[in-house]
Specification:
The complex is a heterodimer of chains A (357) and B (457). With 357 residues, chain A is mostly helical. Chain A is built from 17 helices and no strands. In chain B, the strands form 7 sheets. Chain B has a 3-stranded antiparallel sheet, with no helix packed on it. Chain B has a two-stranded parallel ribbon with strand order 1-11. A two-stranded antiparallel sheet of chain B has the order 2-5. The longest helix of chain B is centred in the first third of the chain and has 19 residues, at 2-20.
Amino acid sequence: MKHKLVIALGATIMLASACHKTEDPTPVTTDFNTMKQQVLEDFTNKVAVPGYKDLADASDNLYSSLQTLNDNPTEDNLAIARTSWKNMRTIWEQCEGFLFGPVEDNDYDPNMDTWPTDYVQMDSLLNSSNNLEVSDIQSATLSLRGYHPIEYIIFGNHGDRKAADITARQKKYMISLATDLKSTCHDLYQSWTADPVNFAKQVMTAGNGSAKYAKKQEAYLAIVESMISICEEVGEGKMKEPFDARDPQLVESPYSGNSLADFKNNLVGLRNVYIGKYKEDGLGINDLVSSKNVALDNKLQTQMTAAINSFDNITVFYEDAIINQRVQAQNTMNALNELKETLEGELKPFIIQYITD
Amino acid sequence: MKKTTVLLFIVSITTLFAMCRKAQPFSEDSYDERLSGGIATIFDETSRAFTHAISGLSDNDMHAHELGDAAFEQTYVSAPAPVNSGLGPIFNNVSCISCHHNDGKGTPTAGDVTSSLLFRISTADNNDFGGPAGMSGYGGQLQDNSVFGKQAECKVNISYSNVSYTYPDGETVTLRKPTYTMQNAYMHITGAYSLSPRLAPPVFGLGLLENIPESTILSYADENDADHDGISGRPNYVYNAETKRKELGRFGLKANTATVKTQVAGAFNQDMGITSSIVPMESCYGQAQFDGRSDDPELPDSILNAVAFYVRTLAVPARRNVTDPEVKHGKELFNQLNCSGCHKPIVQTGVDLTLPAISNQRIQPFTDLLLHDMGDGLADNYNDFLANGKEWRTAPLWGIGLFEKTNGTPYYLHDGRARTIEEAILWHGGEAEQSKTKFSQLSKADRQAVIKFIRSL
């Protein structure tokens, strides 16, 4: 009898442990206070700084592939330049998952990512005798700078541009644009890693000497608000405006047909922030949440995955989807809205409740 | 029988008590001090604190708010364009958000893509509507940017010189005094003129301010200083281009605009070069830069209305640290120094059945919306309707403690010359001279308490 009991007990334990799913890395510490400092450090060192480092590298890469295209305008070189552009967009859109700090304070965002393109001004600039040097570009209005004019030159309308059709003036303009973009991205990276701003330090010393965040809670709220904000921008702005107006001309990144990838990467960036993982795995807000409220963590992760995956149901360019796949587009916006409500209604209060210092 | 007697007794006692209890408003301390915007308050102290819609809007209202939000953030481009057409030919900036950073206050530079400072220009005369007469060839505002191929009216050079202020206790503060000079003027200017620098102000809570009854604002006025407290305060009356009437001015740094909608239409036109039904003429009409296009009005009324609705329905951020003893002490001092003589802490909005969230709210805007002489230090010598060259409208102080968050680097006062709240206080003169002097005579700890209180707003 006793024997049977032991076996039964053993079996139960085995069964129970078999049920236990392997989770992403078990936090080295489970002490909430230690974790909340570590999460800020990992957000900084494993998500934000590496993201901006990759962005700066990608801008160098785009520059050199455009230079190659400039010197040798073959279709192959054009294809390489387009890939570099899209690679850089992937990184940038993921970095938009944390649009706070220098990127907004110093207007790096509008300097590189202003939409729409100003065709009239672009034409008059290209048809003029302007030297199209970097300094000329940097003093031009925002809609003549950044990703989208480059996109227009190398993609044309939905990729119909031929390498041989890119004019000498367009090439000159494109190289200066890429140089300007490069300097913006390097400045952005520097603003996190070097004095005088050293924003990485401001985040990591929140509540402990940071000039920017007197309390840890403030840094956390800045992070969570930026998650809410990107969710809102995609779901209620970038997708909804053209959807409501049924106007394909309102869709961002139309030349490359990259709109859906842009939107999806914004959400991937949001999830990176939440789980503290870009390439290297770190402690994330998820670890704080699951230590107090497993159900909320599950809900958030499920909603993030659902939102990200829902983009794959849209199988045509977003410009077409707002006419022909409205149900799928609406489903994605609904998924984004549900996620936003949880972030706003449950994650933010969680932060306010548990991170008070 | 007995039961009925008892019941009757209870009923009569209750009735008696109910009759004794007169209806009374809540006492001061029954209100939650954090609710700066009444029910239209939002709890967010991050850089997005000024960007939220007031909660409880109907679905339709929320839709209008979102449309306006989108248009507020859009970059406008030169005409003809499929989207956001109409920028320029001359302008100050390309979108509302470029100047009103995070719906807040901007950066005091001029002519750059991220600049938020613009300049009005005027002869000393009035125009046909009683407003400031513009300069021939320039109009009433200097557009220091242009679309490619057109010439901006000028650039404005901004330089600062240091001025030292010494407290009675010996502590010194360095203030920076600005000088503004027109450069690269596109044509010769004939005659004397004055420039008025205007830094883009925050745009939240404007629906509430618009909904303060005119009688309330007028009740604060004391043009001849009958109560001898050194503070007069008078209303501005300005021309409303939509109603074609003279009305009480509430918005603009000299209370030079009557309504949110005319403010928005004016900004679209003068700051971005986009015409609307209210201001249908290009800012450069009659000048060399005029494009001659007959596409006016460039902005549909639906967008104009949506943007106006957007700013009317932006929530006010809640106060922070209201129970902090130093903040509470600072609040007492703020009232004792009579800062509250102009920066009115508590105002009741009027009734607006269409928008319950801004209707009949007890708000804490810290403004009386009146004009006050602020002394020579801040004078721009520019008349704006009834406002003379020394007068400015009391700036609302709600949200001021969040400028560091919303703006990265904070700037204060009408032209952003002050880098700290302390500098801003020390620039006060004229009707505010007494309060400033009393402030300067406080102990350092008390001065810090006043500043800490203001930072809690």
